[in-house]
Amino acid sequence: MNVFATxxxxxLYEHATVMGKAHIASLFQQNAxxxxxxxxxxxGLMLDLSKQRISSETLNLLCELARExxxxxxxxxxxxxxxxxxxxxxxxxHTALRAPADQRLNVDGEDVIAPIHENLSxxxxxxxxxxxxxxxxxxxxxxxxxxxxxxxxxxxGPFMACKALSEFTTDSSRKVDIHFVSSMDGSHISSLLxxxxxxxxxxxxxxxxxxxxxxxxxxxxxxxWLKRADQxxxxxxxxxxxxxxxxxxxxxxxxxxxGIPESNHLYFxxxxxxxxxxxxxxxxxxxxxxxxxxxxxxxAGAHAMDTHFRNTEFESxxxxxxxxxxxxxxxxLGITAHAILPYxxxxxxxxxxxxxxxxxSNGKNTTRTNEMVGYNTCPVLxxxxxxxxxxxxxxxxxxxxxxxxxxxxTCSTRYEGPNNTELKHQHQLNLSNCLAQSQILALGDxxxxxxxxxxxxxxYRGNQPCSTLLLDKLTPxxxxxxxxxxxxxxxxxxxxxxxNPFDQWGVELGKTIxxxxxxxxxxxxxxxxxxxxxxxxxxxxNTKR
Length: 545
Ligand code: F6P
Description:
It holds the Pfam family PGI. By secondary structure, the protein is α/β, with parallel strands linked by helices.
């Protein structure tokens, strides 16, 4: 199965035989207006693709390919709630989560927008209650510490956003500490609990399915910790659950079964993919961090990107162009590694967020019609704060042997106000490094005179395609736009590859096998048939304890 066996696909293969030999430096030499030709903007955000190995013809052919794949219709199906997540027979409606309250969208005969806003109002009441110091723990002390327990999509988005937007706290939200616990092995929670006051701590158990063992194990540890702490106060478990736990899930019954009373439930819907859920009540920690208005501003930014994506022609559509240049790199230039390089410490968790968004969505080897794909799909993604990565893996980007495409993400303005001279200088340093690195990675050492006389170990071959994403400022709105843009990029690539980006069957077998191994780890190997490596490792572990 080759989705590129079309007219535009064939032309792109042909075109790649020429462009594959081109150097980005020579493309700049040939066209002094390259930046003007290949940079694209929406208010607040600019995407510069001029350091990609593309020409106008490349983009024209890629847009033609998107038309051949009926991308416009797919976008409409996404927004209209068609069941495009076919293997799970449901729509993917993250765009509805950030639609304004006056919109209506009927799915299966029922409007989904009004219930979304009802849930947001419910969340607002809860957030305001905590911020006002009115949510009291078992002993009557106000809650001032929140611990979000979740994993994957029920952790990464809120974790990233709370870090990115921590400058946007309000007077009341600043009084609340927020922590994140995700690791199954207990290392996050065990080191955290020692530092917390149980009488003032509220746990948010975030899990779409409410069956994820990682989350339930941490939640159980939290509950037992509270019960132990409360022994002398004779508080009963029901009161602990009522005063110290909130559940956020798409499966209310399981929250009840676990013990969280209905009054402490926040809901979202099956049609919200886990990795697309930070816009739903899963975003509770974000609202607790920056206040409900800040959360709504983030939704508004994402909605602005949704509107741009839905209504803009492909030739100037940011998510479409970002996606199509990725397709060009992956499927026509053979590049299968992608570095995410935020030049902004506030975006330190963006790489791990995008690892899940991109690799869990598009790390697929079968098409929507269950044939094996005959082409590469999602590349390996990884990343780090750019300036730190310069002292770690940039050596490989500059002088290693594999081609890597790179996203540079930064903002023009930071540290406003008269008293920030030193920090403003640090921002200038940061920007100069961001620009220097993308310049060298794309253009190589042609950027300095006489480099051709240097010995090979001092040469920089360049020709690593780079995109630069420039926010005017990092605000809840522009942050929302940035993340929504990546979501849509992932969707566009899935359409071209003819894969379903909204399921994740590849994570299931590991859960089943791990459950099956527990008896052997507990010393009983009856009925467990094991390969010699797994058996040997279990025996070794068991002899050590
Ligand atoms: O196992 C993968 C996964 O299902 C992710 O897709 C999801 O974001 C994560 O686990 C957490 O799932 P839940 O929110 O149901 O606990």
